[in-house]
Design goal:
InterPro entries: Reg_prop, WD40/YVTN_repeat-like_dom_sf. This is Two component regulator propeller. By secondary structure, the protein is an alpha+beta fold. Among the domains are: 143 residues, Methylamine Dehydrogenase, Chain H, CATH 2.130.10; 159 residues, no CATH class. The protein has 18 helices and 33 strands.
Length: 709
């Protein structure tokens, strides 16, 4: 509880900072009220507001909120209950809800919705619109909103009556769940519905779903009250959830996440998630390590580099400099020149890392993965004996490194010393790859598990499925090296790979889309980051056209995942191509002479981006301030369509609008996950993730004019 209160306090602190930014939005924040604040253990049955002060009941006892704690109160008699009406219609069943609307009494029953005035008898209401006609069942929610519209929640769905006309909503219209328990109206026209599995906010014909521990102490909602500021107080079987919605700007949110990352996710300059010893409590955090510390540090550094380019903020440059030095340290610490480590930790690290990655561990892993590398120790000692570094580095790491090398060199490195350091590390890593026939070769003299970029690997049964992605990545690395070092040898090597090994043709298929077992979401992340260097630093117009086609193929498969970073990368690179088209960079009569119509057809089809930037803004707005990893199961939802792809996992799907569920309703916030995963967990409350997953797409999109400055 204290952890989430700290998040709220920090949020409120930032929410009143004046930045001059016009594009504001409302940020939802959840606060959990439990026995730590004086509530009893177990279910909270009812909740209401008395002079805007929350009053709750549990087991017949009342509790009042004083702004800091809940204390027992004598006001339990003020809490309303469903009336016991006489002479109900035959077959109506139990009364579940009631409301007065336009001087008439409406009751929701087990077997229908009924209405009467003071003189008439009960009459059954049969709502209909152009799509539906319903005889209602289990009408457990009735409420009148602040605009004078009548709402119900029933087994069939949600209905709204405006001036005598019904509008009905089901899963097809976005209603996620229909086992209702209650409803309450807010001051801005919004209506909250409680269900047996979460809460729903209806607002402007859209339904926001608030479930799981991210938003509520328990999914069983017993009652809801909305205060004058629009905060929802939600009584559940395990306490009260308070959901606030406050106005803020993108920049205020970025300031919050920069502070969060600096305070709780910085380990010797490396950016990482942390582990929580106490579930849901960020005060109990301990810095962790991951296989991709280099990639995640590169991404955070890139966020600060774009921030520096936009604002000139010296803090941003200091963080970007520190991040570059950390990533470079990963290369400098290893005995093999140009080989980057995954992780660096002090020699007295609290976990017995080499015992965890024992020879027996390797043998066990090889039973499920025949390519698992049997190397020991996995954390060798540094030359000075002060640190251990993790080996068996992957293509994920290289993608992050090279993405950052180019961004840092272009946007942050200012002095000759800074530029020289970038040139050195880029040359070291690229020369390592060339020297070892385009493989990452570890301290044992053998390639790493996921570090092969060589033709023999691509043409084997072991690497055929990596051919397109890794060919594209290798060409990207060489383009970055050529740009940063200005050494023509890297262009010559790239030309050799194209002429002799068709790497550019391989790169036309940059991502595996089938079978599902070959489709991993992090490939989208490292692939699109690699496209950034590949396209931005390419000078050959024919190759640029080919890479533009490849970019489109890679992005279309993920274009509906509402990943603000992937969308941003695609949008920026597509716009770069458009700019070159408008500048007359492509002389179509001189390109692809074997078919002079091809170049113009590429321009006609892909001369403009197909990105709708509203989804970047939506995702940036809806990334929760609380980045604790929660288990979220959306497989019960009525507003999702399951993926029918053969051999696809059973819990994959998307919302009825064909896009992924919003990021604050799914089980992950990281940028390298599959947004179509309907049942996911990132630590089950025992980890907190770093703010990079807002900062990088925000500053990237802002730098590339994809969202307002």
């Amino acid at each position: 509880m204290r952890a989430l209160l700290l998040i709220l306090i920090a949020f409120l602190q930032y929410s009143f900072i004046s930045t001059g930014e016009k594009d504001k939005f409302r940020q939802d924040v959840s606060v959990i009220h439990s026995s730590d604040q004086g509530l009893p253990q177990g279910a909270i049955d009812r909740i209401q507001l008395s002079n805007n002060v929350p009053l709750a009941t549990a087991s017949g006892k009342a509790y009042q909120w004083n702004g800091k704690q809940w204390a027992q109160s004598k006001n339990s008699s003020n809490l309303p209950s469903v009336s016991q009406f006489k002479k109900l219609p035959e077959g109506a069943g139990k009364v579940l809800s009631e409301v007065t609307f336009k001087d008439k009494i409406y009751i929701g029953c087990e077997n229908g919705l009924y209405v009467k005035d003071k003189k008439s008898k009960w009459k059954q209401v049969l709502p209909f619109d152009e799509n539906y006609s319903w005889a209602l069942k289990k009408v457990a929610a009735l409420v009148v909103d602040s605009s004078g519209n009548l709402w119900f929640g029933s087994k069939e769905g949600i209905g709204k009556n405006s001036n005598g006309t019904w509008q009905l909503y089901t899963g097809k219209e976005g209603v996620p769940y229909t086992k209702f328990t209650c409803a309450s109206a807010g001051p801005g026209g919004e209506v909250w519905f409680g269900t047996e599995n979460g809460a729903i906010r209806a607002e402007n014909d859209y339904f926001y779903y608030r479930s799981t521990r991210r938003w509520l102490p328990d999914n069983r909602v017993n009652d809801i009250a909305i205060d004058k500021d629009g905060s929802a107080w939600i009584a559940t079987d395990k306490g009260i959830g308070q959901i606030l919605s406050k106005e803020m700007t993108y920049e205020e949110k970025a300031a919050y996440f920069t502070q969060q990352t600096e305070e709780r996710h910085n380990r010797m300059g490396f950016i990482c998630q942390n582990q929580l010893s106490e579930q849901f409590n960020i005060d109990s955090y301990e810095l962790a390590i991951s296989d991709n510390d280099g990639q995640y540090t590169s991404m955070y550094g890139a966020a600060q580099a774009f921030r520096y380019a936009i604002t000139g903020d010296r803090e941003a440059k200091e963080i970007a400099d520190r991040s570059f030095k950390a990533v470079k340290w990963l290369v400098d610490i290893t005995p093999e020149p140009g080989f980057p480590a995954r992780v660096i930790i002090p020699v007295d690290w609290h976990e017995p890392v080499n015992e965890q990655y024992s020879k027996e561990y390797n043998k066990r892993n090889q039973k499920n993965d025949p390519f698992w590398k049997d190397i020991y120790p996995r954390f060798p000692l540094s030359e000075d004996g002060k640190y251990r570094w993790k080996c068996d580095t992957s293509s994920d790491e290289l993608a992050g490194h090279y993405f950052y090398y180019g961004v840092y060199y272009d946007l942050v490195a200012e002095t000759e010393e800074e530029k020289k350091a970038v040139k050195q590390v880029v040359a070291d890593v690229t020369d390592h790859l060339i020297r070892h026939s385009f493989k990452l070769v570890d301290y044992d003299g053998k390639p790493t598990r996921w570090g092969s970029f060589d033709p023999d690997y691509f043409n084997s049964i072991w690497g055929w499925d990596q051919r397109g992605l890794n060919s594209m990545m290798m060409l990207s690395f060489l383009n970055v090296a050529s740009h940063v070092t200005e050494d023509p040898k890297y262009d010559e090597v790239a030309k050799m790979l194209r002429d002799e090994e068709n790497y550019h043709i391989n790169a036309m298929h940059p991502k595996e889309f089938f079978p599902p077992e070959n489709v991993v979401p992090w490939d989208n992340n490292l692939g699109l980051m690699s496209f950034y260097g590949l396209i931005n630093y390419e000078k050959d117009p024919e190759l640029l056209m080919m890479y533009r086609l490849s970019l489109e193929y890679a992005w279309l498969n993920i274009s509906k995942q509402k990943n603000a970073f992937w969308d941003g990368l695609y949008g920026a690179l597509a716009n770069t191509f458009t700019k070159k088209v408008n500048e007359g960079y492509f002389n179509t009569s001189e390109l692809f002479k074997e078919n002079p119509l091809f170049a113009q057809s590429v321009i006609d089809r892909y001369g403009k981006s197909s990105l709708d930037t509203k989804y970047i803004k939506e995702t940036l707005q809806r990334i929760p301030l609380d980045l604790i990893g929660y288990e979220v199961d959306n497989t019960h939802r009525l507003d999702v369509i399951f993926d029918p792809t053969p051999a696809q996992e059973a819990d994959m799907g998307w919302r009825v609008d064909t896009y992924a569920l919003p990021i604050d309703e799914r089980g992950h916030v990281r940028l390298d996950r599959d947004a179509f995963d309907l049942h996911d967990s990132e630590g089950n409350g025992y980890s907190e993730h770093e703010g990079t997953f807002y900062l990088l797409p925000y500053y990237f999109a802002k730098y590339h004019n994809l969202i307002p400055h």
